[in-house]
């Protein structure tokens, strides 16, 4: 065999040598891309000079001079810079995405499991929801929520009470605003102690179950420690007249709601639209994941004497999660990217504030567009990094 | 001793019909017991759902059909104060504006041209989607070359043969929605194939370029791509060269769709067994021939459902061009519903309901098609 390898390769024309061809084609590609980039850059420089538009990132320090109605950090049109406006937009995007992801997950899991329910009516209702929502454009749904539903709510003076201190009106959602006093730190402290204690108990219970087989209600203990302990501390403090956190409850006046915390209708419409839309997609992901667990697994679990709830918790869900997590990640990313549709209903997210107002005021299209795209790209990459880590943890361990 | 014993026993001569099973063991009662009332929780769920449906469905149907207004020429026909009754959906508004919703401001006397465009496109789509259609090769040429040229001449105008020019600013409504989606699919398929092949290429620079293009585009929202096409594209072109207002978002949409299409097609390429590649190579086929005759026909066939699903997404995403100022269906509905002539509370709902019905029927039809192809592919694999 060695002699075959040692033989000189047959003499062929260089044109037919795959290596030479590879180099040639890649060279052509590099030249074409380089030429396009060169043309674009020179033209852009020329055009920007002709239009007298500054370049560079100096505009970040300039005064913005426009108002943003919803800001989670201090912002005023008089004193804030474009960088502040950028941060406000970015935070608004992240807040909407975070709340939307939580709500969409809840809606999606509920609807996905409901669609597999044995209850005929429940399954059909869930199926109708999924099919209807998935086949309508998100923009249409957002416009519907914003212009057709929220805009027709009653005025603030006859706001609909949804719960204690929560009112829904055409001005948005009014909620009690927490006011933190000097001793408010004890609540998170109690929570942290509860967290540590529940981790310790969880370890101990696991070790005991492995050794003796006795089970311990870990879930309830954790719940009690995480929620009950802070509540208990609060209650004890309140008994002694010290109130670490009080609430500014909105009051229904003659014409308006005063006090409390207000969520603007744009925010409510966006969160509602995004979570209902993405929830329908997550429902399909969840349904596919549960169906992917073979029937034998459920039957084996029942034959071992597990109850239906236990079968679901210990056998079906852990295996379904392996199928669910990758598409679920891409749904979360879709939701984050879709939050940019806020611009259509004037919610001040990153695109509306930065790519809309800031771009119009400064005219620095290249910088603004590049930064906005990089932000979304970073969010996408970071999210998929963490979800990949989680996915690796729960992935099937193969020998 | 022939004593005839009295006939004590009775022998039945004919077969008796079987008794019906107990009413609780079959039929609708059993079905209801098993599916609606199988346990206390299930019963509660059923009752609650039935109650909710009872309070929501009849009012919705009454709103959409029962108390809807079908005729009228302005908003007063749909207002409670003028009609003196509870008013449901205002379909009169949709009927009055249907031409605007379909053609936008396309000149009235030239609207036969969009009609022919719809027909030409429909023929192409049917030819491409009907898997047993005759001469599908010619169909592909028709769809990817003849249809775009013909549509361009029909819609934009071709003065040499007497079709006067119509500026794109006048196009609107469903016409624009369909133009944007059609451009998206016609461009994204070939570019998607190229990007997918490039991503699986052995040449490192080609692969790198394709990976960057695909991952970058898929990592950002479409709206930023549209803004980029709108604001940055004119900057990159030499002075004096302008891009039409409609063409800019078209480029953005096509670019975006290509990246998504590339990933779908890459899935198909990866699903083709290695033996197919090796077999083609051992026959001495060059790379283009191998791809064209052996790999792509198989790969594209198995990803037809994925392609259709991408297209459904693209079709829904075309609504975003309305944000950058193009008069697609959503934008025409938005501008028609704030028209003071038709000022009535139910006009909002009616406009959105019309758009919703249009999008739902299109998307639902496409997903029905993709499911039927999936079933067909699964059946052909079973054998």
Describe this structure in words.
The complex is a heterodimer of chains A (399) and B (383). By secondary structure, chain A is α+β, with helices and mostly antiparallel strands. Chain A contains twelve helices and eight strands. In chain A, the strands form three sheets. A four-stranded antiparallel beta sheet of chain A has the order 1-2-3-8. In chain A, helix 3 crosses helix 8, helix 3 packs antiparallel against helix 11 and helix 8 crosses helix 10. Chain A is globular and about 80 Å long. The model of chain A has no long low-confidence stretch (mean pLDDT 84). Chain B is mainly α and 383 residues long. Chain B is built from 16 helices and no strands. In chain B, helix 7 runs antiparallel to helix 15. Chains A and B meet through helix 2, helix 4, helix 5, helix 11 and helix 12 of A and helix 2, helix 8, helix 9, helix 10 and helix 14 of B.
What gap, in angstroms, lies between the N and C termini of chain A? 36 Å
The fraction of residues assigned to DSSP E strands of chain A is 5-15%
Q: Per the principal axes of the C-alpha atoms, what is the gross shape of chain B? A: extended
Biggest sheet descriptor of chain B: none
* Helical content of chain A (DSSP H or I, runs of 4+): 55-70%
User: What is the largest interface, and how many residues per chain?
Assistant: A-B, 54 and 54 residues
- Helical region count of chain B? 16
Order of helices and strands of chain B: HHHHHHHHHHHHHHHH
Give, in order, the helices and strands of chain A. HHHHHEEEEHHEEEEHHHHH
Average residue-wise pLDDT of chain A = 84
Helical proportion of chain B?
Answer: 55-70%
Tally of individual helices of chain A: 12
Strand content of chain B: under 5%
State the strand order across the main sheet of chain A. 1-2-3-8
Overall geometry of chain A comes to globular
Q: Would you count the extended β strands of chain B for me?
A: 0
Structural class of chain B: mainly alpha
GO cellular component, one term (chain B): ATP-binding cassette (ABC) transporter complex
GO molecular function (chain B): transmembrane transporter activity
Pfam families (chain B): BPD_transp_1
InterPro entries (chain B): AA_ABC_transptr_permease_3TM (IPR010065), ArtM/GltK/GlnP/TcyL/YhdX-like (IPR043429), MetI-like (IPR000515), MetI-like_sf (IPR035906)
């Amino acid at each position: 065999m060695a002699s075959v390898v040692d033989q000189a390769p047959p003499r062929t024309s260089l044109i037919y040598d795959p290596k030479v061809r590879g180099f040639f084609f890649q060279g052509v590609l590099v030249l074409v891309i380089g030429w396009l980039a060169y043309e674009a850059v020179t033209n852009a420089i020329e055009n920007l000079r002709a239009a007298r538009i500054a370049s560079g990132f100096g505009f970040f320090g300039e005064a913005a001079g426009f108002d943003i109605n919803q800001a989670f950090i201090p912002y005023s049109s008089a004193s804030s810079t474009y960088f502040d406006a950028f941060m406000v937009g970015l935070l608004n995007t992240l807040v909407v995405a975070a709340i939307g992801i939580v709500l969409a997950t809840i809606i999606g899991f509920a609807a996905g499991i409901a669609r597999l329910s044995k209850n005929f009516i429940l399954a059909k209702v869930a199926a109708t929801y999924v099919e209807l929502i998935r086949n309508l454009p998100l923009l249409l749904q957002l416009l519907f929520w914003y212009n057709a539903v929220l805009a027709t709510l009653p005025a603030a003076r006859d706001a609909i009470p949804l719960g204690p201190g929560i009112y829904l009106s055409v001005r948005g959602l009014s909620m009690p605003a927490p006011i933190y006093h000097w001793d408010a730190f004890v609540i998170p402290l109690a929570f942290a102690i509860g967290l540590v204690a529940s981790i310790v108990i969880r370890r101990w219970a696991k070790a005991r179950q492995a050794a003796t087989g006795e089970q311990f209600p870990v879930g309830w203990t954790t719940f009690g420690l995480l929620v009950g302990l802070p509540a208990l501390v609060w209650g004890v403090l309140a008994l002694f007249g010290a109130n670490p956190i009080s609430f500014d409850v909105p009051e229904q006046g003659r014409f308006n709601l005063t006090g409390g915390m207000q969520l603007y209708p744009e925010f409510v419409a966006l969160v509602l639209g995004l979570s209902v839309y993405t929830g329908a997609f997550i429902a399909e992901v969840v349904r596919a994941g549960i169906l992917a667990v073979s029937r034998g697994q459920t039957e084996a679990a029942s034959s071992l004497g597990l109850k239906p709830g236990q079968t679901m918790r210990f056998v079906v869900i852990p295996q379904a999660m392996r199928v669910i997590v990758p598409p679920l990640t891409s749904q979360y990313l879709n939701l984050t990217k879709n939050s940019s549709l806020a611009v259509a209903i004037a919610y001040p997210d990153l695109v509306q504030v930065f790519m809309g107002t800031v771009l119009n005021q400064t005219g620095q299209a290249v910088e603004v567009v590049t930064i906005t795209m990089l932000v979304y790209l970073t969010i996408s990459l970071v999210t998929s990094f963490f979800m990949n880590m989680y996915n690796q943890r729960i992935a099937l361990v193969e020998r | 001793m022939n004593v005839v014993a009295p006939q004590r026993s009775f022998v039945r001569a004919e077969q008796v019909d079987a008794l019906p099973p107990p009413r609780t063991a079959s039929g609708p009662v059993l079905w209801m017991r098993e599916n609606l009332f199988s346990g206390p929780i299930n019963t509660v769920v059923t009752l609650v759902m039935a109650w909710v449906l009872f309070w929501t469905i009849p009012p919705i149907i009454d709103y959409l059909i029962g108390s809807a207004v079908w005729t009228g020429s302005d908003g007063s026909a749909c207002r409670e104060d003028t009609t003196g009754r509870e008013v449901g959906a205002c379909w009169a508004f949709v009927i009055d504006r249907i031409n605007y919703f379909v053609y936008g401001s396309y000149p009235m006397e030239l609207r036969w041209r969009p009609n022919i465009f719809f027909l030409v496109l429909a023929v192409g789509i049917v030819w491409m989607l009907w898997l047993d259609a005759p001469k599908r090769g010619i169909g592909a040429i028709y769809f990817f070359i003849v249809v775009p040229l013909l549509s361009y001449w029909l819609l934009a105008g071709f003065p040499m043969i007497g079709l006067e020019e119509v500026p794109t600013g006048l196009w609107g409504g469903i016409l624009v929605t369909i133009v944007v989606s059609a451009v998206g699919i016609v461009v994204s398929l070939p570019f998607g194939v190229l990007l997918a092949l490039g991503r699986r290429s052995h040449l490192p620079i080609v692969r790198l370029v394709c990976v960057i293009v695909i991952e970058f585009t898929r990592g950002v929202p479409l709206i930023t791509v549209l803004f980029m096409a709108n604001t940055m594209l004119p900057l990159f072109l030499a002075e004096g060269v302008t891009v039409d207002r409609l063409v800019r978002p078209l480029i953005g949409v096509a670019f975006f769709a290509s990246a998504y299409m590339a990933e779908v097609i890459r899935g198909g390429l990866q699903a083709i067994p290695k033996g197919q590649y090796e077999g083609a190579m051992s026959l001495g086929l060059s790379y283009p021939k191998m791809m064209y005759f052996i790999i792509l026909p198989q790969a594209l066939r198995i990803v037809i459902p994925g392609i259709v699903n991408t297209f459904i997404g693209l079709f829904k995403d075309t609504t975003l061009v309305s944000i950058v100022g193009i008069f697609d269906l959503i934008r025409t509905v938005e501008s028609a519903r704030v028209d003071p002539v038709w000022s009535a509370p139910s006009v909002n709902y009616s406009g959105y309901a019309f758009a919703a019905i249009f999008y739902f029927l299109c998307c639902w039809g496409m997903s029905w098609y993709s499911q039927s192809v999936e079933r067909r592919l699964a059946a052909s694999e079973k054998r």
